[in-house]
């Protein structure tokens, strides 16, 4: 998937790194890519990602907000 990076944020602790990237496909559609990169004992990195497409943003944000609301403010 050829894409253009629109905006990125990242944060990390000792061995975990998180990248949150808003990207645009070659056809102009937005998507969110969330990547977790874990450092292994041997120094290599294992990466896993999820991709949320633009048509799912509203549901994703609503669901994520609901999870935080119910766990942090209950």
From TrEMBL:
It comes from Pedobacter agri. It holds the Pfam family DUF3276. Belongs to the PUR DNA-binding protein family. This is DUF3276 family protein. The keyword Lipid metabolism does not apply. It comes from the Bacteria. The keyword Transcription does not apply. Keywords: DNA-binding. One of its GO terms (molecular function) is RNA polymerase II transcription regulatory region sequence-specific DNA binding.
